[in-house]
Design goal:
- By secondary structure, this protein is α/β, with parallel strands linked by helices.
- It has 9 helices and 5 strands; from the N terminus they run βαβαβαβαβααααα.
- It has helices spanning 11-22, 36-45, 62-72, 86-95, 108-119, 127-139, 151-161, 166-173, 177-181, and strands spanning 4-7, 31-33, 50-54, 78-82, 100-103.
- α3 links the parallel β3 (50-54) and β4 (78-82).
- α2 (36-45) packs parallel to α3 and α4 (86-95) packs across α6 (127-139).
- The N and C termini lie far apart (47 Å).
- The relative contact order is 0.12.
Length: 182
C-alpha cells in the first residue's frame, strides 16, 4: 500500500487530489497538510512513501519546505506540484532534491503515473518540461540572472516583485529585515 502526504494550502485542491488517489486500489487514504509546519509535523508522526508538495504556500515556500524535508529525510521522494509553468520552477525544484515536478493542469491519471514513477526510483518530468530541458542543452543557452539565485534569494525577489515590504518578507521567511535587505 502506498502512503501519500498531500501538502497544499487550498482545501479544494487537497480534497480533489485525495479523491483522485482514493480511486487507486493500492493507495492508503492520503494524508494532508495545509502548510510547511503541518507537513513537517506529519512527516515526523508517521512514515510516508511520497510527498506531493505545492510550490507556492504562505509562509515557508514549497522549495524551502523541500530543502527541510531533504535535510531530515534525504531518501523521501517529493513530487513538486504547481500551477506555474515548468520553466519557472521545475529545474530549480529538481536541483533542490525533488523527485519530479507536475503542473496542476495535468489530468488525474498523470498524477498517479508521476507518483508511481517516482516510487520506482526514477525522476518524473512532463513531456513539455523534457522538451524545454533538451532545447536548453542543445542550444547551450546561458542561464538568466534569476536562475543563478538560491531558493531563498529567489523567494525574496519574488516577494519584492509582488510588492511586499522588506518587513513582510522577513516575517514570512523568519529572517531579519537586515538579511532581507542584503
Amino acid at each position: 500500500m502506498i502512503r501519500v502526504l498531500i501538502v497544499d494550502d487550498h482545501p479544494l485542491i487537497r480534497s480533489g487530489l485525495i479523491h483522485i488517489l482514493q480511486q487507486e486500489p493500492d493507495f492508503y487514504p492520503p494524508g494532508e497538510a495545509e502548510n510547511s509546519d503541518q507537513a513537517l509535523q506529519r512527516i515526523e508522526e508517521k512514515p510516508w512513501d511520497v510527498i506531493v508538495l505545492d510550490v507556492a504556500m504562505p509562509g515557508r515556500s514549497g522549495l524551502e519546505t523541500l530543502s527541510e524535508i531533504k535535510r531530515l529525510h534525504p531518501r523521501l521522494p517529493v513530487l513538486i506540484m504547481s500551477m506555474h509553468s515548468e520553466e519557472r520552477f521545475a529545474i530549480r525544484a529538481i536541483k533542490a532534491g525533488a523527485s519530479g515536478y507536475i503542473n496542476k493542469n495535468e489530468a488525474a491519471p498523470e498524477l498517479v503515473r508521476a507518483i508511481r514513477r517516482i516510487l520506482s526510483g526514477r525522476k518524473y518530468v512532463s513531456a513539455a518540461l523534457a522538451e524545454v530541458m533538451a532545447k536548453a542543452i542543445e542550444s547551450g543557452e546561458d542561464r538568466l540572472p534569476h536562475e543563478t539565485l538560491s531558493n531563498r534569494e529567489y523567494h525574496v525577489v519574488c516577494g519584492i516583485a509582488a510588492g511586499k515590504s522588506v518587513s513582510e518578507i522577513a516575517e514570512e521567511t523568519t529572517l531579519s529585515a537586515k538579511t532581507i535587505s542584503t
